[in-house]
From TrEMBL:
Residues 357-369, 453-462 have a biased composition (Polar residues). It comes from Chlorella vulgaris. Residues 1-142 form the Reverse transcriptase domain. This is Reverse transcriptase domain-containing protein. Residues 355-382, 428-482 are annotated as: Disordered.
Amino acid sequence: MLQAIQAMYADVPVCVRTEEGLSGCFQSVLGVKQGCPLSPLLFGIFLDDFEGHIQQLGDAAALPQLAGRTVPPLLFADDMFLLSSSASGLQAQLHALQDYCNAKKLTVNAKKTQVMIMRPGGGSGNGKLAAGEFFEYAGLPLEVASSTKYLGLTFSQLSKQHGFASCADVLAKAGRQAMFAMRRRAWELGACLVEQQCMLFDVFVKPVLSYGCELWGVDVLLRPDCSSVERVHRWFCRRVQGLPKQVTAAISLAELGRQPLQSFWIQQLVRFWNRLQNSAADEDRVLGWAFKDNLELMREGGDLAAGSACWSRRWLHVLQSAPPASGTLEWLTELDEAAVIERAAAAYLRKCLEPKTPSTPDSASNRPNTPAAASSEPPFPPPRRMGWLVNSLGQHRVHDGVVYILVDWQSSWEPEKNIAAAALAEHWQQQGGRPHTLPQQPRGRGSRGQADPPSQQAAPSCQATAQLRRSARAAASQAARE
C-alpha cells in the first residue's frame, strides 16, 4: 500500500489556467492532489494525533463544552477550525499548532488564516478586537474577519436578530449567477418551453439556493420580509412567463403550479430534525452533543418566541410544533413530515389571502393611464385569485405555455381532511360567500379531462400564449362578477 501511494506522488504534473490559456506543466512537490478521493484520508491520517496534542493543553486551551464533553478542533480535508471560549485560549492553541507543524514539517499559510469572534458585539461592540487582544502565528499577525467561509457556507458574527441568515444572502448571489448561466445555455440548446425551464431551474439553481438550508433556514423563515433567496425564485417565475413586476408572487407561482422555496426548506428542516433525534443517541458525534446541550437549554424555560437564543425553540417555532405548557421533553419525538408541510401550506395560503392595503388616490393619480377610482381595488378580482391559488387542491396542466387550474370542488374541497382547504373555507366564510371555480378551459385535442400527449401538444407561441391568457382572465373576471 505504501509503495502504491509513493508511486502516485512520484510524478504530479500541474498547470495554471490564465486569461491567455493554460500555462506549461510543472511538478508539484507540496501538499496532496487536488480532487483526489484519497487526499482527505491521507491528510486525516497525517493529522490523526493533532486533537490529542491540543487537548494536552488542558484548561489553557479553553476548549468549548457541549453536553459535558470537550469539543475538539474541526478538521475537514486541509481546512482546520480551532475553537476556544477565550482569546488567551485561542492564542495558546495557535502556539501549539506551530509546535506541531514544526515537528511534522508542515507549513501554515498565515495570509489565509483568519480569526472570527463569535461573541455578541465582537468585544468592542463593532466586531473588532477588544482592548489588549492580539492573535499571531509564527510572529505574523492574523487578520480578524467579520465573516468566514466553511464547507461552502459563509458564517458571520452571530446576532440575536438574524443568526445565520447571512448565509442565504451569499447563496442568493451564487444562485442568481447559476440561473443566468442556466437560461443562457438553455436558449442555446433550444430548451425554451416553460416546463423545460422549470425543470432546469430545479436541477441546477434550486440546489444552489437551498444549500445548507437546514442551518440557515430557521433564521430566514423568521424574517418578516421576503428573503433574498426567495426573490431569485420569484424573479425566475415572472420572467419565464413574461409577467411584469406588478403581478404578485402568489399568482406567478400558482400559474406554474409551483410552491415557494420555503416549502422545500421546511421539508428539509423536518427531515434534519428527525435525523438529530437519532444522532442524539450516538455518544461519539459532536452533532449529538450539540443537540442534547440545546435541548437542556430549552428545558431551562422561556417562551417559544422567534427571538429566543435557543436554537431548538426557534426551530420548533418555525415548524409550528410548540412544546406543551408543562415544559418537559417527553413530547420530543420525530415530527410528522406530512403534517408540518400541510400546516406550512395553510399558513402560506392564509398569507396570500390577506387583504392588501388600498392605495391612496395620490399614488394612483401618479400612475399613467390608471383611473384614481380604481386605486382601491386589487390587481385581480379575489375569486379569480382564489381560483389560481387552489391549484394545490385540484389539478393543473400546461397548454401552450398557460397553466389552467381544473378544480373539482366535490372531490378536493374537504376542509375536515385538508388544512389548506380549511384555510380557504375560513376565508370565504369571512367574505360571506362560497368558493368560486374557474370555468372549464379548452382541453385541446386529448381525451376528455386529460392533457394532450406531449407528442401532440403544439409548440408555444407568444401570440397564442397572450391570447389564451387574456381569454382566461376575461372568463375569470366574468365569473367574479356573477
